[in-house]
Write a structure and sequence with these properties.
This protein has a single domain, classed as Up-down Bundle (Growth Hormone, Chain: A), CATH 1.20.1250.20. The protein is built from 23 helices and no strands. Helix 15 crosses helix 21, helix 17 packs parallel to helix 19 and helix 21 packs antiparallel against helix 22.
């Protein structure tokens, strides 16, 4: 059954047959750098919250607004129209323009003089980054055949880990040595060089050919939305990703603060050491998750969603234990396993979405997931975590942040359950 649902005729597969193996990996390498820049600029703020809080005298709730809605709401709102453009336009141009914009806005974050100015600059970062992930996913689906997409997406998705490592590790080190404004400058500047590399390296399959226009006619956004909404698998994917990002955005932003404020770790331990361990766990999880998913899906395509269901269900108890361990090395050992499990399920989920959404609406489908996940998950996750921390800190002091993170952990079993249902619904919804 799995093999038949994943088969494609030559005509539909022609987009990826145009490229050599070396070209595919070259394109993927450039897209990896694009995504790394995106997550570098996105994650660096997490390790800068404490000095920003001290300089502007704001609460954890305000920090949550800065790291959440200021970025996520506008990222989500800009994502759908940009994705519609990506489904029929030049994705290379979209990525280049978007990367240039968010890099400039990140640099502007470093020269702001008020909290309001910083919030406005973060809005600009969010709008720019909306043009990165959906077009990149769409290009990967054109560069790689279906039976290898989970692995390719795993490599691409691991850029989030590289961005985390740079944002928390390098950003924390630069902030400690030269101040938080310099950290923003260091995060934003490399993106302008990567934008040049993307422009001169990536190939847009739609340029110079009429094949995609013939085999993939333009579909109105209303028709795309209705088509996707009728698929039970896609609805479960939306729900699962919402829960996943509600947890990940809400927790990731505050872990450096948790380490320094609650566990009394040094600034170096909370940035460089933690970032290295979290990055290592995430990379191991993503690469192994993509590799295992590709092989499991050849026997039963439902494993593209069942594997994430399993890893996320297992990660919840481990994360709860990690939050109660007061020894820093013990926390690091557990958090390595947590991030390996949490991130190991992400590449197969995206591969599963590609399998059910249909080739004419790839970027739209991914943008729909990111819209829901980012607007509600990324927008509300940090605010909810910060608000719970503020409320609990009135009675429990700095321990309030620990309890807030514990409450967010309860989202992981619910995420696993939704992805299990996603897997159940996949066979009936697979579409070339």
């Amino acid at each position: 059954m799995a093999k038949s649902t994943r088969s494609h005729n030559v005509k539909g597969a022609s987009s990826w047959l145009r490229y050599t193996e070396g070209q595919r990996w070259c394109f993927l390498g450039v897209l990896f750098l694009v995504s790394t820049s995106s997550y570098f600029d996105r994650q660096v703020i997490s390790v800068l919250l404490e000095p920003i809080k001290a300089e502007f005298g704001v609460s954890d709730t305000m920090l949550g607004l800065l790291g959440g809605p200021c970025f996520a709401a506008f990222y989500a709102l800009a994502g759908i129209p940009i994705a519609r453009w990506a489904d029929r336009g030049n994705r290379r141009a979209i990525i280049t323009l978007s990367l240039s914009m968010w890099s400039v806005m990140t640099i502007l974050c470093g020269v702001t003089q008020t909290f309001l100015q910083l919030a406005v600059a973060r809005v600009g970062v969010g709008v720019g980054e909306a043009g990165a992930i959906p077009p990149a996913h769409s290009l990967i689906a054109d560069y790689f055949p279906p039976e290898r997409r989970a692995t390719a997406i795993a490599v691409f998705t691991s850029a989030a880990t590289a961005g985390l490592l740079l944002g928390v590790g390098l950003g924390g080190y630069v902030a400690m040595k030269y101040g938080w404004r310099t950290a923003f400058l260091v995060a934003g500047a490399p993106g302008l060089l990567i934008a040049l590399a993307a422009h001169f390296t990536l190939i847009e399959p739609r340029v110079g050919t009429h094949e995609i226009r013939v085999t993939q006619p333009t579909e109105a956004i209303r028709d795309s939305a209705l088509h996707l909404r009728r698929k039970r698998s896609y609805v479960y994917a939306l729900g699962g990703c919402l829960m996943y990002f509600l947890f990940s955005y809400g927790v990731l932003l505050f872990i450096p603060s948790f380490l320094t404020r609650v566990m009394r770790a040094s600034a170096t331990e909370a940035s460089v050491t933690y970032a290295l361990v979290a990055a290592a766990g995430s990379v191991v999880g993503m690469i192994c998750g993509g590799w295992v998913a590709d092989r499991s899906a050849r026997r039963d395509i439902r494993w593209l969603a069942w594997l994430p269901s399993l890893t996320l269900s297992l990660s919840g108890p481990l994360f709860a234990i990690a939050l109660w361990v007061d020894h820093f090395l013990g926390f690091l050992a557990l958090i390595f396993a947590v991030w390996a499990l949490v991130n190991g399920g992400l590449p197969p989920i995206f591969a599963a979405i590609h399998a059910v959404c249909g080739s004419r609406r790839r970027a739209t489908a991914i943008a729909g997931v990111l819209f829901t996940a980012t607007l509600f998950g990324g927008g509300l996750g940090p605010v909810i975590t910060g608000a719970i921390s503020d409320a609990l800190s009135l009675a429990h002091g700095v321990e309030g942040l620990r309890y807030a993170l514990m409450l967010m952990t309860s989202l992981l079993p619910a995420t696993g359950g939704l992805f299990y249902l996603f897997g159940q619904a996949i066979p009936a919804d697979v579409e070339d």
